Amino acid sequence: MNGDEIVKYVAEETHVSFVQLEREFPQYFGGTQCISLTGLDTIILWTGFTEEGSALFLNLVNSKRLYFHPTQTLFAGKPAVYMIDGKCLMMPLAKQARQYKKLHWYPVVLNTFPYSPKKVKASEGRLLSSGCRPRCPTDLA
Question: What is the number of structural domains in the chain?
Answer without folding.
Answer: 1
